[in-house]
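User: I'm putting together a teaching handout on how multi-component assemblies are represented. Below are the sequence lines for each component of a complex, exactly as they appear in our records. Could you produce the 3D structure of the whole assembly as structure tokens, so the students can see both representations side by side? Please keep the chain order the same as the input.
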Amino acid sequence: MGELQFLTWVRGTGLNLAISIFLLGVLVRIIEIYSLGRKKDLAEPRSVAGASGMNTVFRRSIPADGMLKTSPITYIGGYVFHIGLGVVVFLFAPHIKFFQDLLGFSWPGLPSQAVDFAAVLTIVALLLILIDRISKPVKRYLSTFQDWFTWTLTFLPVLTGWMAVQHLLLPYTTMLALHILTVELLLVFLPFTKLFHAFTVFGSRWYNGTVNGHKGVAV
Amino acid sequence: MSASLEKGVRVLKEVIDAPIASYFSSCVHCGLCAEACLFYTETGDPKYTPIHKLEPMRRLYEQEYTVLGRLKKLIGLSKAVTDAELAEWQELVYNSCTLCGRCSVVCPVGNDIVYMVRKFREGMSASGNAPDGIKGAANRTITIGSPMGVKLPAVKAQMRHVEEDYGLPIPMDVEGAEYLVMLSSMEIMNFPEYLGAIAKIMHQAGKTWTLCSTAFEATNAGMQIGNSDLARVIVSRIVDAAEKLKVKTVISPECGHAYTALRWEGANLMGRSFGFKVRHIIEVLGEFQEQGLLKTEGFETDRLTFHDPCQLARRGGVIKQQRNLMNMVSKNFVEMPDAGFMNWCCGGGGGASAIEEGEELRLEAFKKKKSQLDTVKPDRLVTACANCRIVMEEGLEHYQMNLPVVGLTEMIADHIPNPVVAKPEGN
Amino acid sequence: MATTNDKEFRTKLATLSVSQQRQVAALFVQRVFALSNDARIKAALDMAKRADISDAELAVVSQAANTARVESYAQCGRDSDWTTQAGLFVAKAAVSCVGPEVEGENLAWDAAMQVRVARTCMAASGDVTDHKEAEAQYAILDNFLNT
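Assistant: Of course. Below is the structure of the complete assembly, with chains in the same order as your input.
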């Protein structure tokens, strides 16, 4: 398959397939998780300002007292790559163009040097947390094939995208096609791996905050 | 699959709800929960990572409740939960977890891990994999009425002793009293001064109260073992008593898990809300203090610090009251690092101290409490849970630390002048 | 004048020196020692009975008695045995006998109270319905003061 055919395929059939599987997967997973429901809490509640599900959805983004110094790389590396990913995915002009074609509206982006900087930070942060996962006993102990696999799924799009923009290694067309392919792989596997936390983190934090909020404890 | 494993698996399937499904789906193996758990931090053994304690339940969730997991099971690609595995997990789910809840408050994706452990224990106990120590406690609670086999004559003997000492009658089975006071076996057996303290405080506050001959025990071994049916039996005894005596408030003793069982799980176990309030004794003392009903004299002058029992503070929401009470009778109250909401567990709650095989692990985990105390260097340690007291005394003994431990309710009562009530001369 | 109630008992105890308090407290505890039979408690009582103990000797037996006390706590959830539980209060009483003097508190009184609780434990196990330990203690004190 020539490089142009490859690119056409990933932009067309491949993309349609990936987005369909992604949307279907997300729907199925959301339903199979949240339709299980939960029993109503009949204990007499204690109402304390700031102790609620919604509060925890936001507050849990801040490390609990004393935790940051126990695992700085987990927190800092985690924040850098999540924010970096956000910047790269949503504030890069070519991506915004893609979203506009898909959704019908757009938004302002950042200058490409800023996005480039964010991409590099993201790559470095991802590498750092990979090293951390390998070297820290707890992370190593917990890690399964899925952890290494999802890391790769997350890392490759950023790497290939950056390499494409920098015109590194392979001809641009091929690099771009590879980049889109890795994005499609990420989309396809996201609902069925731990990457689904992108959606369930809100529900999880909310449940946790609600149960504790019922007791008047702000978590 | 053996009959008991089948029962255990069935129970596990029943307890999995949307929160648990959401939690398992959100875990990213970041390992932060381990850094919050004293059993990991003091041993360095990653098997004590909180989320790892749930691995069999996670697999079961996947195999039973996810499309992909069910498909994998169909084509023989999944690993079933076995008897041997559950037996192996007993140490993780019971010996190395006190249901302290620190993991639940640090997880970045919001997982309520202690909630999951509590549910996992339901399956463990249904499959016969609960530790003997707690099984015994649970059985005794059902058959005798108390996990430690404390019977009514024992309670009556303590009542008589208190009546003689203080000249205050201890009411029993009084209908229409405002407060129904519950006790824990630990207090009846190890700290009988607690009953006297209650009597003095209630007398000064001018409140009516009573014990109940059919329900004096609040310790809930059913909750610790993870058997909701057992937990319900214990709670319903108390509910029946409270409703029969038409009290306004039931007071939970200085036993953290008793409070959690009655206050937060009770109504859910019974399937209906209560017509009475449930308060921890420290909450009640806090209310009395606010209302000006506690009139204490004098101050402790030595350097005191307070250990927040997990079920009272972080899991129960009672954090400020103990501090206000300490300041009422102490001139030199200092907080240990991480005090209050983020306090470290004594290492013996949730049934852990009833497990003989777990003693070595508990003593190792105690190094965390020791480090808090080494930093604050108090003359005495105050707390509000009979089990914490003993677990900590044992830990202090083991590490040869000369530090007395006292109960907060008794300390408050010590500063209330003895009632001037006519006592019969001699005996 | 013979002691007939706790008020008189407590007042008379307060007139004793620390050394005398330890000696009379040891006599109180001796009555219930059989409920414990722990060698460390015996050592503490023997030491307390002597009028000429040094602080260093006291510290040694105090440590041992405290260990005995902590070891005799009933563990949460374990099957209880009131007869054994009495041992806890014997140990607590012994700790009072050889422990440091605390301002505002009378160690002989504390020991006497713990001894009574030990007796109450026997009542709890159904062995004794009503004990007359207080009277026995009054008699011991009066006897001690008269010699």
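A couple of points students might notice: The interface with chain B takes residues 4-6, 66-67, 70-71, 73-80, 82, 85, 88, 113, 116-117, 120-121, 123-126, 132, 134-135 of chain C (CB under 8 Å). DSSP finds seven helices and no strands in chain C.
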